[in-house]
Amino acid sequence: MSEFVLFKQPQQSGISYWEGVFNDSINGHSLFESDTFILGEFNAGNEFICLVPTNKQTINIDDPLALDFELKVPSIVQTSQKEFLAMVLNIQHAIRTDSNLNKVVLARAELVLQKLDLLASFYSLCKTYPNGLVYMVSSQLYGSWIGASPEVFLSIQKNKFKTYALAGTRTSHQNWTVKEIEEQNWVTTYIENHFQELGIKYTKQPTETIQSGQLFHLKTTIEGTVQGPSVYNQIIQEMNPTPAVAGIEKQKAVALIRKEEKNKRSIYAGIVGPVFKDLSAQLYVNLRCLQAFTNAYCLYAGAGITAGSNPQDEWEETVKKMENTRRAVISYPLQH
Prior knowledge:
- This protein is an alpha+beta fold and 336 residues long.
- It has helices at 81-96, 118-128, 178-197, 230-239, 250-260, 311-328, and strands at 3-8, 15-27, 36-40, 47-59, 103-112, 114-116, 133-139, 143-149, 152-157, 160-170, 201-204, 208-212, 215-225, 247-248, 271-276, 280-285, 289-292, 297-305, 331-333.
- The chain has six helices and 19 strands.
- Strand 17 and strand 18 form a beta hairpin.
- Helix 1 (81-96) packs across helix 6 (311-328).
- The longest helix is centred in the middle third of the chain and has 20 residues, at 178-197.
- The chain is globular, with a radius of gyration of 19 Å.
C-alpha cells in the first residue's frame, strides 16, 4: 500500500498530491534537502517522519481520486464529562501548589461510530477553512488523518520566518476575558524568551482577533531572521510542543498531561506541513484534526487550564472545537 498526503495551503486554489514512503528516522537536520511533508508527534521536538514524494501532482477541489487508505483499529479510551471535570480540578490543584506552573492544556479524544467519506471530508474542510493548512495523510505508522489547522508553528522563507502565539477560543466576536488575555501573554512571552536565548532578532506585532471556521482566537505575530537554516532545527527542538498546546512551565505541564490524559496524543498537537528545498516551509500545529478508522473516527480537542478556569467552561470549549470539525466532515451513520 502506498503512502500519500493531500494538502492545501492557505488562500491557494490548487491542492498538492504527494505519493511516496514515510521515513521513520528523519529529524530536523534533514530539513531542506528535498521537498518533503513531515508529521511530528506531540512533544517530539525535531524528530518526525518525512514523506519525500516520488509522485507529485496538483489537483483541483472536488476532483475524483482513487485512494487506498491505511486504517488502524481504534483503541481510544473516551473521557466522560465527569472524568474531564475531575481532571481539571486535579490540574488546578497542581497549579495552585506550584508557583512555576501557570497553565496546562488538557485534551480528550472522542470516538464517533460513523463511517467517513475521507476524500469528501478533505474537500469540505478545504472549503470551510480557507485560511488554514488542510491536509489528509495515509501512513503505515499513524494510519489516516485529516485536519485543518489555523495555528502556524513556523513559516520559513530562506533566512526570514514567522511564528504566532495563538490562544483563547470563542464562538463569537466578543470582548476577551482577563484569563484569555493572560494566557495569550504567557504564550507570547515564552516564545520571545526562547528567541532571546538563541540570539535571534525578532519583532512582535500587536495582538489581533482571527476567525477559523466558527471559532475566534487571539493571535500575536512574531517575525525574525536567522543566520543560517541550521538554526531552524534549534527552533523546532525548543518549540515543539508550543505552550499553546502543552502549558507553562512546559515540562511540568507535559508531565501532568501524561498523568491525567487517557490517550497518547500521537500526532494531535504535533507538527505537520510541507518543507521545500528552496529553503521555505509551512509548518502547522496539528489542531482541528481527526483520525479515521474503518467504521469510525476519533476527534481530538483541548482547553487551557489555569487556576482561574471554570471546569464546565473548559469542557464546553472542547465540545465546541469538536463540533466545529464534525460539522465540516462527511460521515454516514452505521447500519445496525
